[in-house]
Fold Methenyltetrahydrofolate cyclohydrolase.
Amino acid sequence: MLSSLNISDFAGRLAAAEVPPGGGSAAAISGLMGASLLELAVNYSLKSPGQVVCSELLLAKQADLSRLHIELTILIDRDALALRGLLAAAGLPENGAEKQQARRLALQKAIKLAAEVPIETARSCLEVVEIAKTIVTKVDKMVVSDLMAGVAMAYAGIVGSLLSTAINLNELEDELLVNALKGQIYLLQSTADELKAAIEDKVYASAPFSVVRG
Ligand SMILES: Nc1nc(=O)c2c([nH]1)NC[C@@H]1CN(c3ccc(C(=O)N[C@@H](CCC(=O)O)C(=O)O)cc3)C=[N+]21
């Protein structure tokens, strides 16, 4: 399993361009880092004194984040499997009408999966960003930078996975599905942009983070 590789081995596998993982798995890792950084912020804040008021909210988000942590871990391998299926179908023989038809069907099925899996990754990453918005003013000041690093990573996970979906749309023959996926890409990306801007507006409004604002 890719998710049990150490960081250097995973990065090496990405760089080697031999067998998958590709950008979709990397996006899931980015989302996983985002979820984990939010967990750090929540766990730290629950332990620090003076956070008793919001502990109910933080405990609820802690549970959501541990589910997202598992989902995103699984998505690293699910995306690599989808990509592997895609490359395998693309490599099927094309000699003769029957084989050509078999290859076409296999390829369409594989592309559909490779387009749909990263949509799930983007959804999980978006949930991470949504959680960040609800807790950003509730966590201990000490871990706001960790939380914001988590937002940046989850946001990168959204962009990376939606790009992976988008590239597969070119080859997908089912026009209804293509249009539905395009709609989901647009909605997920624009929601992510709005949420990220709202969180940054809040955090970058004052020191020490105003210096980070572009
Ligand atoms: N859900 C999803 N996730 C992706 O990550 C994704 C995707 N869809 N759609 C297509 C693009 C393209 N991409 C590649 C990554 C590595 C090779 C690669 O390493 N190729 C090797 C060997 C491939 C093989 O072993 O057959 C080569 O061509 O030399 C190719 C293509 C990932 N993408």
Remarks:
- Residues 97-135 form the longest helix (39 residues).
- The chain has one domain: 23-204.
- Helices lie at 7-16, 23-47, 55-90, 97-135, 144-169, 175-203.
- The chain has a mean pLDDT of 95.
